[in-house]
Structure formats: structure tokens, C-alpha cells
Input
Amino acid sequence: MKIKVIQGPNLNMLGIREQNIYGPMKLEQIHAQMKNFADENQFEIEFFQSNLEGELVDTIQECYGDADGIIINPAAYTHTSIAIRDAIAAVGLPTIEVHISNIYRREEFRQKSMIAPVCASSIVGFGPFGYHLAMIGMTQILNEIRALRAQQAAAQKSAE
Ligand code: DQA
Output
């Protein structure tokens, strides 16, 4: 099963940007940790980062029929993008939203997520560790899907 990790604008600047909020870790380091976790749990994993809203929408759409779950930090688009929300709803894949900072403790304009209502879960405020928590959560979701598929296959077989 495949997990797609999608990172929004300015997350390529992690390790440089506002370290007091986002910490010193670079995006590549976060992704390396996620890749280790995916390998240990026999998941495929792919990473994508863009500063462009349309590219993020395209990448979410491409997950349809290709990935089994999405972990996304839409960054600033979290608070504005109906297009990203609609794309997540359209593909219908289990999606976990991650925010490094606790958006609910920050400026008022960050306290609204357009994305949260179409996600299975939202993880905020744990720093980069939030991505690891998202991997644990996604493992749980995908294992449930695996078990359900096995059950359905067994039921189908016994009906034949
Ligand atoms: C962020 C929070 C957003 O408000 C902000 O625009 C970001 C990062 C986070 O991970 O905490 O770029 O998504």
C-alpha cells in the first residue's frame, strides 16, 4: 500500500524559516524518518512539495487509483484553499492533516482549517514529530482497510 506525503508552500524552507516556531529540522530529515517508518511497516511512500496551489491540487488528484492514503500539510493554503479541500473530498482517500505548530494557538487567521472537515484526523502542535504520529495513525487506518479487504475476499471465496 502507498502513502503520499504532500507538503505545501514554504515547507521547503524548514530549518531556515522561523525556527522559533518550526524548529531546526529540514524537510529532507523529516522525510527520511518517514521513509524509515514506511520501510519498517512495508508501505510504499512518496513525497511531494510545492509552493503552488494548482500543483498541490494536481498531486492530490493523481493519488486517485495510485495511493491508499494521504498525509498533507497544506501550510498557508490550509486557511484559504477550497480547491485543496475539494480535491481531498474528490479522491475520497483517508487523509491526515499535519501542522508543525499549533494553529489554534496562533493568529486568528490560522485558527480556521478549510481542510480539517474532509480529513480523517488532524495533528497539530507536536513539531516535526507530528509527521511520525501521522504515520502511526495512517498505519492503523491502512491496516483496518487491509483487514476489511481480506474479510471481503474470504466472504467472496466462500460464496463461490
Ligand atoms: C503550518 C501552519 C500554517 O499556518 C503556516 O502557514 C505554515 C505551516 C504548520 O505546519 O504549522 O506554513 O502549516
Observations:
- The mean pLDDT is 97.
- The domain at 2-159 is CATH 3.40.50.9100 (Rossmann fold).
